[in-house]
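> forwarded from #structure-qc
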């Protein structure tokens, strides 16, 4: 037994010792034996000296007050400093992973990754042992200290900001700071043509805010009028040459237009505008840049407003008269063409046309009101008036669609015409053969398929409508009555229903435009449209061409009926 006990105890000791060693940390008291001395320093390159003193009292008041030294300086052991190993840079990412990732994508992080020795790191902005909350006046990133902190590296820029309207506001504890424009950890550069629109977006964060504009007494329309101007429209369109806010107002030393040093002071406007418009005269720079045509009382704006209103009336009248003229001409020619087609045959009875119109109207309403929610900035979304109107219009159209579907089930089940319609639309093996035949016709010019009352194009459409109505109806009701649904199913079922509803709507709309509209409008044989949906009639010669098997069946039935009548007469 003894010969196994000693190796066993040795193995346990070997296993346990590293674990215990890993758990043991150098206590703060040990660190402060040296770093608590105010005269502890370190020689840096270039003859500079850095203090290694840590004020224990202040350190306990920081955000890291309860953090042990060894939790950050994990590389140091109890042998430090006798082991002559200098402390390695602290890995802040160990606790601040998200902030570290953002920093890595910033101009500072990218420069650091490229080996820059001067690129700012975490300690340059936040400090080392005295890292206070950003809300504390003692913090290096407090609003009152940011200019000084950033100015340690960006001296000229900090001086310009201090003299600007932003810097003057900062001295009172308010106003835009460096990080309001350049962001916090993912610090971005705003100079150069590539940042043209980004600069406009940056300024808009404050200057489009009603709260900030009213608080500081600034005009509320500066962003709006800029975005409506040529410069704003071009910048929105990703132009790298169009002037942005900074092109006129400057980047850091932004001053009021009444300040003689301002780039937008009347004395400097020709020079400022001349950077993009060489030869700019006093007359060129004389007008207001941020003038709102609807509110300004300037002569030019008043005249422009009257001209605009006259043109709006002129455009409406012109389009209405031209549209009415061409609409009547179109209808006359279509009617003449319909008469020239000769004998007509019934393709859709009144009941079927009413069902089709119900489907058509509800589908269009559903598409417009549905996509208006997904794309609220489109012109058709603005036609809704309000979200309440859009929502209930969509729901009513959905109920109409489902009601039409339920009636259609009754129609095909309980009426003779409906049962015949269903039989004729039922998929059969010869439909697959017709697809192959028509592909050969379209590609190789071989004879085309011969259809009966309905060919595979109509059958595909019909069953696609059946499928779409079931899917859209089920998911739409689930979204509408989500509270009831989630009593039986998990919440993610509603999220899946929304996804299905949206993409099924896209599929349905594209199928209608590409497939249905071609066969009933864009097909040269029926252009400008197949009017069967209105009066139920089609030209007999077209029907014989497109549905020869039905024409032959009808002819055979007529012959059989005539022979039967003749036989009865003989008897």
């Amino acid at each position: 037994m003894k010969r196994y006990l000693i190796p066993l105890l040795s193995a346990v000791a070997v296993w346990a010792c590293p674990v215990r060693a890993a758990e043991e940390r150098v206590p703060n008291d040990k660190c402060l034996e040296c770093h608590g001395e105010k005269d502890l320093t370190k020689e840096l390159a270039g003859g500079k000296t850095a203090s290694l003193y840590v004020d224990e009292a202040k350190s306990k008041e920081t955000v890291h007050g309860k953090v042990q030294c060894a939790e950050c300086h994990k590389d140091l052991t109890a042998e430090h400093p006798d082991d002559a190993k200098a402390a390695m840079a602290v890995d802040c990412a160990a606790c601040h992973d998200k902030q570290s990732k953002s920093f890595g994508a910033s101009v500072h992080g990218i420069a650091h990754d490229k080996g820059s020795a001067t690129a700012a790191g975490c300690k340059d902005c936040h400090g080392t042992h005295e890292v206070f909350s950003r809300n504390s006046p003692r913090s290096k990133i407090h609003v009152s200290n940011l200019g000084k902190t950033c100015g340690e590296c960006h001296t000229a820029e900090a001086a310009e900001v201090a003299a600007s309207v932003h810097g003057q506001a900062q001295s009172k504890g308010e106003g835009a700071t460096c990080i309001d424009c350049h962001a916090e950890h993912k610090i971005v550069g705003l100079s150069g043509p590539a940042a043209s629109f980004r600069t406009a977006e940056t300024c808009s964060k404050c200057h489009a805010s009603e709260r900030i504009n009213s608080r500081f007494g600034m005009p509320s329309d500066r962003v709006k009028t800029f975005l409506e101007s040529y410069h704003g429209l071009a910048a929105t369109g990703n132009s790298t040459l169009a002037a942005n806010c900074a092109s006129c107002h400057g980047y850091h030393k932004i001053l009021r237009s009444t300040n003689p040093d301002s780039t937008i002071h009347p004395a400097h406007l020709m020079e400022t505008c001349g950077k993009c418009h060489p030869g700019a005269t006093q007359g060129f720079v004389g007008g207001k840049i941020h003038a709102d045509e609807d509110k300004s009382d300037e002569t030019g704006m008043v005249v422009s407003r009257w001209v605009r209103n006259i043109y709006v009336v002129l455009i409406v009248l012109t389009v209405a008269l031209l549209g009415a003229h061409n609409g009547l001409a179109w209808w006359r020619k279509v009617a003449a063409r319909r008469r020239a087609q000769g004998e007509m045959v019934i393709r859709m009875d009144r009941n079927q046309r009413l069902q089709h119109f119900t489907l058509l109207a509800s589908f269009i309403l559903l598409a417009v009101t549905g996509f208006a929610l997904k794309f609220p900035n489109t012109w058709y979304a603005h036609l809704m008036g309000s979200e309440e109107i859009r929502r209930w219009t969509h729901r009513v159209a959905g109920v109409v669609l489902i009601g039409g579907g339920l009636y259609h089930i009754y129609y095909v089940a309980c009426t003779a015409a409906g049962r015949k319609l269903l039989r004729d639309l039922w998929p059969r093996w010869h439909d697959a053969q017709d697809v192959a035949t028509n592909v050969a016709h379209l590609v190789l010019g071989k004879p085309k398929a011969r259809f009966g009352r309905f060919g595979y194009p109509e059958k595909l459409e019909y069953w696609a409508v059946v499928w779409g109505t079931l899917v859209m109806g089920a998911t739409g009701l689930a979204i509408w009555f989500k509270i009831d649904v989630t009593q039986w199913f998990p919440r993610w079922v509603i999220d899946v229903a929304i996804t299905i509803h949206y993409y099924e709507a896209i599929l349905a709309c594209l199928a209608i435009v590409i497939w249905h509209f071609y066969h009933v409008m864009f097909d040269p044989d029926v252009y400008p449209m197949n009017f069967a949906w209105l009066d139920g009639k089609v030209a007999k010669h077209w029907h014989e061409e497109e549905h020869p098997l039905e024409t032959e069946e009808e002819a055979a039935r007529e012959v059989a009926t005539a022979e039967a009548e003749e036989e009865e007469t003989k008897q």
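QC bot note: The domain at 341-559 is CATH 1.20.950.20 (Fumarate Reductase Cytochrome B subunit). The beta strands are 41-43, 49-51, 344-346, 537-539.
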